[in-house]
Specification:
Elements lengths: L6 H4 L30 H22 L2 E7 L4 E6 L4 E6 L7 E4 L2 E6 L4 E6 L2 E6 L5 E6 L5 E6 L4 E6 L4 E7 L4 E7 L2 E6 L3 E8 L5 E17 L5 E6 L6 E6 L2 E7 L5 E6 L2 E6 L4 E6 L5 E6 L8 E3 L2 E5 L5 E5 L5 E6 L7 E5 L2
Antiparallel strand pairs: 1-2, 1-27, 2-3, 4-5, 5-6, 6-7, 8-9, 9-10, 10-11, 12-13, 13-14, 14-15, 15-16, 16-17, 17-18, 19-20, 20-21, 21-22, 23-24, 24-25, 25-26
């Protein structure tokens, strides 16, 4: 039975801007010579009205925001409405794990298969092989490039999502996993419980600039809007804290529950998930105060914000939870046996 939805979610529509390109005579139609001798005017008008109505309904559906949810053990991605109903099942390679919106596309990483699936709307646009263990993705601001971490190769791969091809690879000397981008600076956690973070400059081909060593082992990294400060979550069982960095120095340390934790941002707030606690903690970006604690199913590790909502799927329960900008739970629905990640797209 579908979960409950707030009125704000019912009116939500997601728009994506056209992306900037990556730098690297039409024939006349022949007119038919035939002529319809008789037309039933009443039938013609009724058919025209019906066509217009169907067209309008389809246009509305095309603008509907949908959560794309990985069904890890079922070799598919589910398109789920914010009312909890499954709109479409998209067949993929085995083991879809992470999924990330990049402009008009969504990039799905299949770590075990060593491949990416690139979706546009609700269709598979490309399948890209040649990876060892692709993990997570950060998208360029223009929506054309995906920076994909590969823990098997120990590198970051640049992918042109529209063309479906690999442009460059940069070694980071470690099992690259969670990744975040701000301007030209890309931070990569080197492991699920990483001793250091690789910092790359992506102004042209990504170039490794330096390594950042943290007080404890790191799991997730995320730049808060507009990108001046980075949040670093713990992958260390002995440290249940999140660190806030500015210009490479720690400026805040916040208690965030059992590790591993993940972080995303919306509405001037940080949303930090603790899957082992079954909790999403909501912090103020202004002063770091804990504003709210939302109960979610156990195993709700990954968390993504887009379009004014926050998505967190459960790896162990197969649920999708949707929170609003204040951290209030608006939807909890079981959609799969297991779900690792989710992102928000338009159905168009």
């Amino acid at each position: 039975m579908p979960g409950t939805v707030t009125p704000a979610l019912q009116s939500l529509a997601l728009s994506q801007s056209r992306s900037r390109a990556w730098h690297w005579s039409r024939k006349d139609l022949r007119r038919s010579g035939g002529r319809i001798e008789e037309v039933n005017r009443r039938r013609f008008l009724l058919a025209s009205a019906a066509f217009a109505l169907v067209r309008d309904v389809d246009a509305f559906a095309a603008d509907e925001p949908l959560a794309l949810v990985t069904a890890d053990t079922e070799s598919r991605v589910l398109a789920v409405g914010l009312d909890g109903r499954i709109r479409k099942e998209i067949a993929t390679l085995p083991g879809p794990r992470s999924i990330q919106t990049v402009g008009e596309h969504a990039v799905v990483a299949h770590a075990a298969a060593g491949a990416l699936t690139v979706l546009r709307g609700l269709r598979v646009r490309h399948v890209i092989h040649g990876f060892d263990e692709p993990r997570y993705t950060a998208g360029s601001p223009d929506g054309r490039l995906a920076y994909v971490t590969d823990s098997g190769r120990g590198d970051v791969t640049v992918v042109d999502v529209a063309a479906g091809r690999v442009l460059a690879r940069t070694t980071v000397y470690g099992p690259a996993r969670h990744v975040t981008l701000s301007g030209r600076m890309l931070w990569v956690a080197l492991g699920s419980s990483a001793e250091r973070i690789a910092v790359l400059d992506v102004a042209r081909k990504p170039a490794l600039v330096r390594f950042l060593t943290t007080p404890f082992r790191v799991h997730d990294v995320g730049f808060e809007p507009p990108g001046r400060r980075a949040w670093v979550t713990s992958g260390d069982d002995h440290h249940h804290t999140v660190l806030v960095y500015e210009r490479g120095a720690v400026i805040q340390s916040l208690d965030a529950g059992a590790t591993p934790q993940h972080v995303t941002f919306a509405g001037g707030k940080a949303f930090v998930s603790s899957g082992d606690d079954g909790v999403v903690r909501v912090f103020s970006l202004r002063d770091g105060r804990l504003l709210r604690t939302a109960q979610v199913p156990l195993g709700s590790f990954n968390v993504q914000a887009a379009g004014g909502v926050v998505l967190t799927p459960s790896l162990t329960r197969g649920t999708l939870c949707v929170l609003d900008r204040r951290g209030r739970l608006s939807l909890r629905e079981r959609v799969a046996e297991s779900s690792h990640d989710a992102c928000l797209v338009s159905a168009r």
